[in-house]
C-alpha cells in the first residue's frame, strides 16, 4: 500500500511541474479518466496549482495612478472625418475649413447647438464627437513577477476547461485585466491559459508580457517595446519595474525595430502629418519622447485601443502611462535607451 502511495505522490509532483499540452494539438489536454481530471488538467496538477491561484489572484504589482482631472483636460473633440466648415459665429458666415482626416479640437464655449473650437471660429455641435481619454494604466513592480503575465484584450467569459465553450454563468472578465498564467494547454492548435480557478482563456485574446534581454552596452534605466505582443516594459538593468500595453504602427506605417536613445522630450506638442484620409492633426499631445527620428513615445487621448497596432509609427501610451514614463526618464535618464523588438509567438488558430 505504501508503495502505491509513493508512486502516486511522485506522479503528482511530476504533473504539477509540467504544463499540460495535447500530444497532437487536436485533443483536450487531459487524457485520463474523468475522475482523474479537473478543469482540463490532471487532477494532481490542478490541486497543486489551486492554492497558488487562491494566494495570488492577480500580479504582484500596483496600477499606475490615474489622474481624473488630467483625463478630463485631454478629453477633446474629433471633427467629422470628412472635414468641417468653420463660421464666424453661430449660424454665421463661413470663414474657413478643417480638412478631412483624424482632426481633434478643443471647445472654448457652447451656444445654441454650436461650439467655438478656435478663437472666433465656430462649428455645429453635430459635427463634433467628444472622445473621453482612456482610463487604462499599466503596472508598477516593486518585486519581480512570480510567473508569466498577460492582459485581456477584450471582455471575455472564461471556459471551465481548455477548448471548451465559455460557461454561460461565468463572469464576464473585463478588458485590460492583467492575469498570472498558471498553466498552458493546446487544443486544436490553439493555446489556452489557466488564469484563475476553473477559468481558461484563449491565448489570442491576451497580450503576453515577454521578458526582453538587455542589449549589450545598455545600463541603468531602459525601455523595451515588444511589437508582437504590443507591450512596453521598463527595466533597471535586468529588473522589471513597469509594464503596460501600447499601440504601435499599423502594418503600412510599421514602427521600426532596433536600439535607439531618446533624443528630445516635450511635455506637450502638436502632432500633424499625412495626407488625404491619412491626414492627422492632434493638438496638445502630452509627454512626447522622440527616439527614432520623428517616431516618439507619447500619450494618446484619441483612442482606447491599447494592445493593437493602430498608429502612424509612434508608440501610443495611455495618458497615465505616458506621464509615469516621462517622469521616470527625467533628468539623468532623459536620453534613456529604447529597444524595439519582436518576440516570437507560436502560430495559433483563430
TrEMBL record:
Residues 221-341 form the L,D-TPase catalytic domain. GO terms for molecular function: peptidoglycan L,D-transpeptidase activity; transferase activity. Residues 1-22 form the signal peptide. Pathway: Cell wall biogenesis; peptidoglycan biosynthesis. GO terms for cellular component: extracellular region. GO terms for biological process: cell wall organization; peptidoglycan-protein cross-linking; regulation of cell shape. The active site is at 298 (proton donor/acceptor), 314 (nucleophile). Keywords: Cell shape, Cell wall biogenesis/degradation, Peptidoglycan synthesis, Signal, Transferase. The keyword Signal applies. PROSITE patterns: LD_TPASE. This is L,D-TPase catalytic domain-containing protein. It comes from Candidatus Thermofonsia Clade 1 bacterium.
Amino acid at each position: 500500500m505504501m508503495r502505491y502511495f509513493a508512486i502516486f505522490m511522485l506522479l503528482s509532483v511530476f504533473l504539477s511541474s509540467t504544463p499540460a499540452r495535447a500530444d497532437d494539438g487536436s485533443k483536450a489536454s487531459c487524457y485520463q479518466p474523468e475522475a482523474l481530471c479537473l478543469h482540463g488538467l490532471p487532477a494532481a496538477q490542478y490541486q497543486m496549482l489551486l492554492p497558488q491561484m487562491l494566494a495570488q489572484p492577480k500580479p504582484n504589482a500596483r496600477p499606475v495612478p490615474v489622474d481624473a482631472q488630467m483625463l478630463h483636460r485631454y478629453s477633446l473633440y474629433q471633427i467629422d472625418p470628412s472635414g468641417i466648415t468653420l463660421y464666424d459665429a453661430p449660424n454665421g458666415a463661413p470663414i474657413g475649413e478643417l480638412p478631412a482626416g483624424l482632426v481633434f479640437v478643443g471647445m472654448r464655449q457652447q451656444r445654441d447647438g454650436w461650439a467655438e473650437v478656435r478663437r472666433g471660429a465656430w462649428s455645429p455641435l453635430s459635427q463634433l464627437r467628444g472622445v473621453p481619454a482612456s482610463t487604462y494604466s499599466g503596472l508598477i513592480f516593486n518585486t519581480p513577477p512570480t510567473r508569466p503575465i498577460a492582459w485581456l484584450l477584450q471582455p471575455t467569459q472564461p471556459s471551465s476547461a481548455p477548448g471548451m465553450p465559455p460557461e454561460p454563468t461565468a463572469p464576464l472578465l473585463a478588458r485590460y485585466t492583467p492575469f498570472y498564467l498558471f498553466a498552458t494547454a493546446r487544443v486544436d492548435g490553439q493555446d489556452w491559459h489557466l488564469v484563475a480557478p476553473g477559468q481558461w482563456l484563449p491565448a489570442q485574446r491576451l497580450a503576453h508580457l515577454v521578458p526582453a534581454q538587455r542589449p549589450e552596452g545598455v545600463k541603468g534605466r531602459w525601455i523595451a517595446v515588444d511589437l508582437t505582443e504590443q507591450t512596453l516594459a521598463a527595466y533597471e538593468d535586468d529588473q522589471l519595474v513597469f509594464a503596460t500595453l501600447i499601440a504601435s504602427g499599423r502594418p503600412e506605417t510599421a514602427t521600426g525595430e532596433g536600439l535607439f536613445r531618446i533624443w528630445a522630450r516635450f511635455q506637450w506638442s502638436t502632432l500633424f502629418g499625412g495626407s488625404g484620409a491619412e491626414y492627422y492633426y492632434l493638438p496638445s499631445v502630452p509627454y512626447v519622447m522622440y527616439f527614432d527620428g520623428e517616431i516618439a513615445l507619447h500619450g494618446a487621448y484619441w483612442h482606447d485601443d491599447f494592445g493593437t497596432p493602430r498608429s502612424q509609427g509612434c508608440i501610443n501610451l495611455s495618458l497615465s502611462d505616458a506621464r509615469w514614463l516621462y517622469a521616470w526618464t527625467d533628468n539623468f535618464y532623459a536620453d534613456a535607451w529604447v529597444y524595439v523588438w519582436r518576440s516570437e509567438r507560436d502560430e495559433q488558430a483563430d
